[in-house]
Amino acid sequence: MRLLERDDTGGVRLTENLPNNKIPPYAILSHTWGPEEVLFRDMMDGTGKNKASYAKIRFCGDQAWRDGLKFFWVDTCCIDKSDSAELQHALNSMFHWYRSAVKCYVYLADVSTHQHGDGPGWQPAFRESRWFSRGWTLQELIAPTIVEFFSKEGERLGNKESLEQEIHDITGIPRKAFQGVPLSDFSVTERMRWIEKRDTQYEEDKVYSLFGIFDVHMPVLYGEGRQKALKRLQDKVHEDYLCLAKLWPGDPRDPHVEKERIELAKGGLLADAYRWVF
C-alpha cells in the first residue's frame, strides 16, 4: 500500500509501496472523480499541484493533520494504474484499506455550505449528491468505522452516525449495515440490491465494487462485460458458501441456509413477484 505523507509545512509526498506490517495509522478520502484529477504520474513528476483537483488532496492532508494523522490515502494518485498487477491488488484490497483507516473523509464536491439569503441550507444538495449514486462509494460508506462528510469548502457536515437516518433514506440500505453488523447477516439478494441504482464508469466496476461487500477476491478482467463479471462473482460466492457449509455443525437443511442456497443457485429473487405477493 502506498500512502501520501504530509509534513509540518503542508507539503505532500508519496511514500514507497509499504508492506502490510509497516503501514502507519492513516486517513482515507472518499470522493467522486472530476476533471483534472491528480494521478500517480502527476505526483511522481511534481505537476499535481497545478491541477484543480489538488484541492481535494490538500483538504484530506490538512484534515488528517488536524486529527493527528500524518499519513493519508487518495485513490487517484496512490495507485499506479499503469501497473496491472498493482491495479488488481488494489481493487481486491480496497474494502480492507477503507476498513483499516482511522477515519474516512467524504468530500462532496456538489454540496456547498455557502448559501445566499434564506435558502434551504446544504441538506437538499446533500440528498442529491452524486456521491450517493456511484458504485465504488458503496463500500466506502460501509467499510470504515468513522465516516465524516464535508462540503466542497471543507466544512464538516456530520458523520455516519449523526446522519444515519438521512443516509438510510437516500440509499435504502438498512441502518444496521452502517453500525458494524457483519455483512454476512444480510442475504446475498439484499446486498445485491444496494448496488442496483448506482453507476460506474466501466460496466464491470458495478460488479468489482462488490468484492468487499461479499468478502471475495477475484481477477479483474476489464472488457468481459457486466454479465460475465456478475456470473463469476455469483459462482465465487456460491463456492465460498459451499466450503463454509462443510464446516457448519448444524443441519445444512436449515431454512435460512436453504433460502441462501436457492437464491445463489437461481440468481436471486424475482423482485416484481415477491412485491406482488406482499
Short description:
By secondary structure, the protein is an alpha/beta fold. It contains twelve helices and seven strands. Strand 1 and strand 2 form a beta hairpin.
Record the SSE blueprint.
Elements lengths: L3 E3 L5 E3 L11 E5 L9 H6 L8 H13 L4 E3 L1 H4 L5 H17 L2 E5 L15 H5 L9 H6 L4 E4 L5 E4 L4 H8 L16 H6 L11 H4 L17 H20 L9 H12 L4 H7 L1
Parallel strand pairs: 3-4, 3-5, 5-6
Antiparallel strand pairs: 1-2, 1-4, 6-7
* Shape field: globular
Largest sheet: 7 strands, mixed
Per DSSP, the total helix count is 12
- Give the averaged pLDDT, no decimals: 90
Description:
The protein is 39% helix and 10% strand. The chain contains 12 helices and 7 strands. The chain has helices at 40-45, 54-66, 75-78, 84-100, 123-127, 137-142, 164-171, 188-193, 205-208, 226-245, 255-266, 271-277, and strands at residues 4-6, 12-14, 26-30, 71-73, 103-107, 147-150, 156-159. It has a 7-stranded mixed beta sheet with strand order 2-1-4-3-5-6-7, sandwiched between helices. Strand 6 and strand 7 form a beta hairpin. The longest helix is centred in the C-terminal third of the chain and has 20 residues, at 226-245. The protein is globular. It starts with a strand and ends with a helix. The mean pLDDT is 90.
